[in-house]
Design brief:
By secondary structure, the chain is of the alpha/beta class. The chain contains 10 helices and 10 strands. Strand 9 and strand 10 form a beta hairpin. It holds the Pfam family ABC_tran.
Length: 273
């Protein structure tokens, strides 16, 4: 279980990114983190694994307070946290298999990682993960030869190669088309369910969050202003999170996107006749 207690982040400029965030994520639960730009969503995720240093508060992963650890102990504990990035963060010139195996770098001696001589058990595990994310036939391809959806699947497999106890996912669908976005979200939720993995997913697409997330946490100006199941995410709740003007603009954008997709499907149907 992950527990955040009074987590806050104030930058040297005096800007407050997070203010007294307190929440718990039990085993197997997937949280969708939503809110307007600048609400603190990415900062929250990065504070948990301390890519951003929190100003105060506790970050309890099990019985370990990650916020209090020195560099050496933090390096060990980060192996327990899988991170999936919006822009994939793959090494483009390496193969899919090599990128997945990079998830094991925290577990092998430097000479093995430098020579890319990973233990047979790690290689076997990597093949299993590639099969699970539907990329077995692409194992020997370079990462830069893949589509966006395929790259995100590699990122998922790499995170799972760590054997994590927690997944942090930062806008996994921001660069993907709607169909691929749903496929990636479905894959993430299935994997978390299979493995009992808790996950926090920073996601900008509210309908997608409502469709796939078990619980929604809404941030506004660094504070939690909503925490509940998707069916409680009413128009009033969304206005609290985004503000009236921002929420109306978001709804209009969703409607325009839906109309554009419908028109595209219509054109394809005509061409198919």
């Amino acid at each position: 279980m992950l527990t955040l207690d009074g987590l806050s982040k104030t930058y040297k400029t005096g800007d407050t990114a997070l203010s007294d965030v307190t929440l718990s994520v039990p085993k197997g639960q997937i949280i969708g983190l939503i809110g307007p730009s600048g609400a603190g969503k990415s900062t929250l995720i990065r504070c948990i694994n301390r890519l951003v240093e929190p100003t105060s508060g506790k970050i309890m992963l099990g019985d370990v307070n990650l916020a209090s650890l020195g560099k050496s102990d933090l390096r060990q504990q980060r192996r327990r946290i899988g991170m999936i990035f919006q822009e994939y963060a793959l090494v483009e010139r390496l193969t899919v298999m090599e990128n997945v195996l990079s998830g094991r770098l925290g577990y092998v001696p430097f000479w093995r990682s430098f020579l890319r001589r990973f233990p047979a058990t790690d290689i076997q595990r990597a093949y299993q993960l590639l099969d699970r994310v539907g990329l077995m036939e692409h194992a020997d391809k370079r990462a830069d030869a893949l589509s966006g959806g395929q790259r995100q699947r590699v990122g998922i497999a790499r995170a799972l190669a760590q054997g994590p106890e927690l997944l942090l996912v930062d806008e996994p669908t921001a660069s993907l088309d709607p169909k691929t976005s749903r496929q990636i979200m479905r894959l993430l939720t299935e994997i978390c369910s299979e493995r009992g993995l808790p996950a926090i997913v920073n996601i900008h697409d509210v309908p997608l969050a409502q469709q796939f997330m078990q619980r929604i946490v809404g941030l506004r100006a660094g504070r939690v202003v909503f925490d509940g199941p998707p069916d409680m995410l009413t128009r009033e709740a969304l206005t609290t999170i985004y503000g009236e003007e921002d929420w109306n603009a978001m709804r209009q954008g969703d409607e325009e996107q839906a109309e554009a997709e419908a028109e595209a499907r219509g054109r394809l149907a005509v061409l198919a006749q």
